[in-house]
Write a structure and sequence with these properties.
CATH superfamily: Creatininase
Distance between the termini: 46 Å
Order of helices and strands: HEHEHEHEHHHHH
Helix content: 40-55%
Structural class: alpha/beta
Number of domains: 1
Number of strands: 4
Strand content: 5-15%
Strand order of the largest sheet: 2-1-3-4
Radius of gyration: 20 Å
Length: 266
């Protein structure tokens, strides 16, 4: 049930059929090596969301391309909004989704660089009362699913970004978008320029290792691996949608929390 393809009567029915659940696919626009499209993460999130909604009804928002990607601002094609605007835009969008009757919003994220931001965004929902609940789902196989994928399709030679997983997915969707003749495997190896800071985090850390926005050897990628990876994520999202549909506790706990905030106690 893709939001943008529904007419107004279909939309009303979709809200009811999906029991107020909306999937918000999230990616970004950034370099994926020299061989994959800038919107790879968004393609993945949208496809997983679309297929999951076919199995467990939910309204699928058209997609959100403005994930956290400040670390790639030096590269052509990147769209990196400043942090304040990112948070305000996400909040406004969730408010509009909820205003249309979809009070359970699952952010379906396929961009690793947005994970910390989205966890923080979910925490900021406790700033004040809201008429909706935000849930965060990260598109990735479980450890057991990953073991099974490797057993069938082979263990990867490094992982991270524009790697064998993402390349395989693009091959499964549109092989013409995976330009393997452009691959420079040497650019996928970490430079280790901050290896002396092993036990601490700094924002420049990703750039220090991967200034080319490429991590993990994609040679050996196949459409079959990509389809299997996608299907694992679809299976996990279907389970998440069902759990969210049956969840009344999060909203009740939010109300309890804010009631107590109005009259703080010990």
């Amino acid at each position: 049930m893709n939001w943008e393809t529904l007419n107004i009567l279909q939309f009303r029915q979709a809200v009811a059929d999906g029991r107020g659940v909306c999937l918000l696919p999230m990616g970004c626009l950034e370099k994926h090596g020299d061989h994959l499209p800038l919107g790879t993460d968004l393609f993945f999130a949208r496809e997983v969301a679309r297929r999951a909604a076919e199995n467990e009804p939910a309204v699928v928002f058209p997609g959100y391309p403005f994930g956290q990607i400040s670390e790639a601002r030096h590269l052509l094609g990147t769209v990196a909004l400043e942090a304040r605007l990112q948070m305000e835009l996400m909040q406004a969008l969730c408010g509009e989704i909820a205003r249309n009757g979809l009070g359970k919003i699952i952010i379906v994220n396929a961009h690793g660089g947005s994970i910390s931001m989205l966890r923080y965004f979910a925490q900021t929902q406790l700033d004040k009362r809201r008429g909706f609940t935000v849930y965060f789902f990260q598109c990735w196989p479980t450890a057991e699913q990953q073991r099974q994928l490797n057993a069938v399709h082979g263990a990867p030679d490094g992982e991270g970004h524009a790697d064998i997983h993402e390349t395989s997915f693009i091959m499964s969707q549109n092989p013409a978008l995976a330009r393997m003749e452009n691959v420079k495997v040497e650019e996928s190896r970490p430079l280790g320029r901050l290896r002396h800071l092993r036990d601490v985090f700094t924002g420049i850390g990703w750039y220090a290792d991967y200034p080319c926005q490429f991590a993990g050897n994609p040679i050996g990628a196949t459409p079959e691996r990509g389809a299997a990876l996608r299907d694992c994520c679809v299976e996990n999202l279907v389970a998440a949608i069902r759990a969210v549909k049956s969840d009344d506790s999060a909203a009740a706990l939010q109300k309890e929390f804010f009631d107590r905030c109005d009259a703080p106690g010990v």
